[in-house]
Amino acid sequence: MAKRKGGKRKAAAGDVATNRRAAYRYHLLERWEAGIQLQGSEVKSLREGAVQLKDSYAALRDGEVWVHNMHIAPYEPASRENHEPERPRKLLLHRREIERLIGKTAEKGLTLVPTRVYFKGPHAKLEIALARGKDFADKRRALRERDQRREIERALREHGR
Q1: Residue 84: inside a domain
Q2: Where would I find the beta strands (DSSP E) of the chain?
Q3: Which domain range does residue 30 map to?
Q4: DSSP 86
Q5: pLDDT (tens digit, 9 = 90+) per residue, 63-111?
Q6: Cβ neighbours of residue 50 closer than 8 Å, sequence gap 6 or more
Q7: Are 113 and 104 in contact (CB under 8 A)?
Q8: What are phi and psi of 129, to 5 degrees?
Q9: Tell me, what CATH number does 102's domain have?
Q10: DSSP letter for each residue of 131-156
């Protein structure tokens, strides 16, 4: 099996970071695009791809949407004027979208999960998804389907040689 160069798996084209674990842990029902309120050093760090969404989640508080545990690494050249890596960051959504999210998340078992960070023009965007947690059997089924797809692709490649 050939090894990948670079070691770290790249995000999809145009994405700064993706939360691939979210699709494994949750059923993603709906998605929204939100702006992120950032400091200057955070934007520069994002452009370098120094962001991690692994354990992040979005929460509604006082009629606003906030993302928690999104780790944006400190920007090295900023030294003193750097940001706190895991501070809560405000998400920028339209009032109607926030009201809809409030109604949806009031339903038992639903949560908001960040799925990817990307730039749209000069603006950083965060895609959040309304999600329902998967049970253990669903996770096993997803793994089994992925392995079967891999086997089929491998067989097709071998047959084509």
Answers
A1: yes
A2: 15-18, 26-36, 51-52, 57-61, 64-68, 71-72, 89-92, 110-120, 123-133
A3: 15-133
A4: T
A5: 899 999 989 888 888 777 788 888 899 999 999 999 998 888 888 888 8
A6: 72, 73, 75
A7: no
A8: -125, 140
A9: 2.40.280.10
A10: EEEPPHHHHHHHHHHHHHHHHHHHHH
Residue 51 lies in a domain: yes
| Token pair recorded at residue 2 | 């050939």
How far apart CA 2 and CA 21 sit, in angstroms, is 24
pLDDT in tens, 2-48: 544 444 555 566 788 888 888 888 888 889 999 999 888 888 888 88
Q: Which amino acid is at 19?
A: N
**Domain total for the chain?**
1
Three-state DSSP class for residue 158:
helix
Distance of CA 22 to the CA centre of its chain: 7
Q: Does the residue 72 lie in any domain? A: yes
The dihedral of CA 44, 48, 49, 52: what is its sign? Answer: negative
**Residue 27 amino acid letter:** H
Locate 102 and state its tokens. Answer: 């409030």
42's enclosing H/E stretch is helix 40-47
Q: What is the dihedral of CA 31, 34, 87, 114, to 10 degrees?
A: 20
Residue 50 token pair? 């120094």
Distance CA 127, CA 75 (A): 23
Task: Establish if 49 belongs to a structural domain.
Answer: yes
